[in-house]
Amino acid sequence: MILTDIYYWCGVTATAYVVTCWIFSVVRGIHNCGTPKERRDYIWPDRKQQVLIYSCATMLLPYILNPQSEAAWILMKSYFPCTYYTYCGVLLFCFFGSVTQWNKLKIPTYIAVGITALTMAPLIVHAWVPSGVFSPGFLSLWNIVVAVVSILMMVYAGIAMWQVWLWMQHARDVNYSNPEDFPTEYAHRVWLAPVVLTPFLWPGFITDSPKVMAAMCIPLAIFNIVLLLNVMPVWRRAAILSASDEDDLVIEIEAPAELAEERTNRIAAEIELFVNTEAAYLDPHLKLEQVVERCSFSRSYVSRVFTERFGGFSDYVNGLRIDYFNRYRTQHPNSTEEAAAEASGFTSFKAYAKAKERIQQR
């Protein structure tokens, strides 16, 4: 009777986990984070990947229907360490990589997904076929394969975390004139997800205990709901490509002082013409690369002039926006703060407040 009760609760907790995955998939599938105001590509996050990944929990149905099945248990205990690190890596790359250049990382991602799928496929077939397919000897050997692949996927997730951390550092003043163009705050909340989840992914596999797995399913189900609540708000983005690797490798020869000053003045004039005179700062997703394209010099020269003459790309652009905001409120006294902020090139009044506070602190 006690054993029956144990398996009953194993089935209940597994059901709770899978149901939260289904809820995540359904909600993300039908909820489009609100209607984008101008262009539909300014939207976070990548819903298709999230819906697909969270739908994969359906493979655990044999364990929910019969938690006493040995074949279903092998699938259940292998699922979390083998797949979760892959899921985390893919979502980190897709979510944050969609605003920067990550083409060179797509091939490793496809390889990671392929390895995970091939590793889980025999266990899925074995669990879903009523009489099983593979011998105990094969399953014992495959248990080792699962452990090795899970460790490899930990490395893959670690690479994704490291890359997102680099993107967060790069987003600080270098490319983006509005903070919403790269979701740094959201990145800070989720980039360590593989580390946070690790204590809940391995215990069931290592101990080979359904009771331990049942205890792990509850926090993992809660995590699904917490993550869903975090990705529900609107995130608007631009389809941004970072500067090419070749641009970063340009070797610049320092000119004599007179020529350097002349060059600096020329770049500063080109910056002011495009950003200020032509009102490019009113583009809420203005990027450094767009300014570089309008100047006669390389990205590094333009970045240096922004720093030396204008106090940095972000501060210069947002300073112009703040001045425009003040003029706009004077000319349109009946307008709301939100409308004035958006008319001034900010993505929201919150972005305006952040930019103003940051400039005032400097």
Key terms:
elongated, mainly alpha, single chain
Could you walk me through the main structural features you see in this protein, from its secondary elements to its overall organization?
The protein has 362 residues and is mainly α. The protein has 17 helices and no strands. The protein has helices spanning 2-30, 47-55, 61-65, 70-97, 103-128, 136-170, 184-190, 193-201, 203-207, 210-231, 245-248, 257-277, 288-294, 299-310, 313-331, 337-343, 349-361. Helix 4 (70-97) packs parallel to helix 6 (136-170). The chain is elongated, with a radius of gyration of 26 Å.
Element order: H for helix, E for strand:
HHHHHHHHHHHHHHHHH
Could you tell me the number of beta strands? 0
Overall 3D geometry?
Answer: elongated
Gyration radius (Cα, Å) is 26 Å
Q: What is the helical fraction, as a range of percent?
A: over 70%
Number of helix segments? 17
How far apart are the termini?
Answer: 69 Å
- Note the main sheet: none
Unreliable residue runs: 33-45, 234-253
- Estimate the strand proportion: under 5%
Q: What oligomeric assembly is this protein in?
A: single chain
Mean pLDDT: 82
